[in-house]
Design goal:
The chain is mainly alpha-helical and 170 residues long. The chain has one domain (4-169): EF-hand (Recoverin, domain 1, Orthogonal Bundle), CATH 1.10.238. 57% of the residues lie in helices and 5% in strands. A two-stranded antiparallel sheet has the order 1-2. A two-stranded antiparallel sheet has the order 3-4. Helix 2 (23-29) packs across helix 3. The longest helix is centred in the middle third of the chain and has 21 residues, at 60-80. The radius of gyration is 18 Å and the shape is globular. 22% of the residues are buried. The chain binds calcium ion (2 copies). One calcium ion binds next to strand 2. Residues 51, 53, 55, 57-59, 62 line the site of one calcium ion. Its main location: cytoplasm. This is Oidioi.mRNA.OKI2018_I69.XSR.g16520.t1.cds. It is found in: Cytoplasm.
Length: 170
């Protein structure tokens, strides 16, 4: 079942009326709290995840699934946006990662800020950067775990295993 509000929004951004959104149209549909559009890299990642019929475009059913996915991430984002600024700063991100069960040192958060603050300021994550950061961490953690036999956060792998893992997951 497609939510009628979602269907209406889909129709508004489907300017070409072809029943499917390309990357530019989807980018128009996905907004951060400050009304900026999602970064095009995040739009591309969303298409890759939700384009089930491999058309490189997003139809209404795919859009509906994407919308539900982002809705649950939005709740998570709002929960960790402690000062209600509509963006996630380094302190909020650090708390979020801890509460989501990750154990990182203080050196790791700046790496994330650098990469996922698409404004280039490395100071705040908008919703798109927050979602992207957590998706990547989830994926790479899952890819790392089979190598981490003692479950202590260290692993040995060959150069080729490392490359394969990164290429498959980023
Ligand atoms: Ca599709
Ligand atoms: Ca905030």
């Amino acid at each position: 079942m497609v939510d009628p509000n979602v269907a209406r929004w889909f129709e508004q951004v489907d300017k070409t009326r072809r029943g499917r959104l390309n990357a530019a149209e989807l980018q128009e549909a996905l907004k951060n709290n400050n009304y900026s559009s999602f970064d095009i890299n995040v739009v591309a990642a969303m298409i890759e995840m939700f384009d089930k019929d491999r058309t490189k475009t997003i139809n209404l059913n795919e859009f509906n699934e994407l919308w539900k996915f982002l809705g649950s991430w939005r709740q998570c984002f709002d929960r960790f946006d402690n000062d209600r600024s509509g963006q996630i700063d380094a302190g909020e991100l650090s708390t979020a990662l801890q509460q989501l069960g990750y154990r990182f040192s203080q050196h790791f958060v700046p790496v994330l800020m650098q990469k996922f603050d698409y404004s280039g300021r490395a100071s705040h994550l908008q919703f798109d950067g927050f979602v992207m950061a957590l998706i990547k961490i989830q994926r790479l953690t899952t890819a790392f775990q089979p190598y981490d036999r003692q479950r202590n956060g260290t692993a040995q792998f060959t150069y080729e295993q490392f490359l394969a893992t990164v290429i498959q997951n980023t």
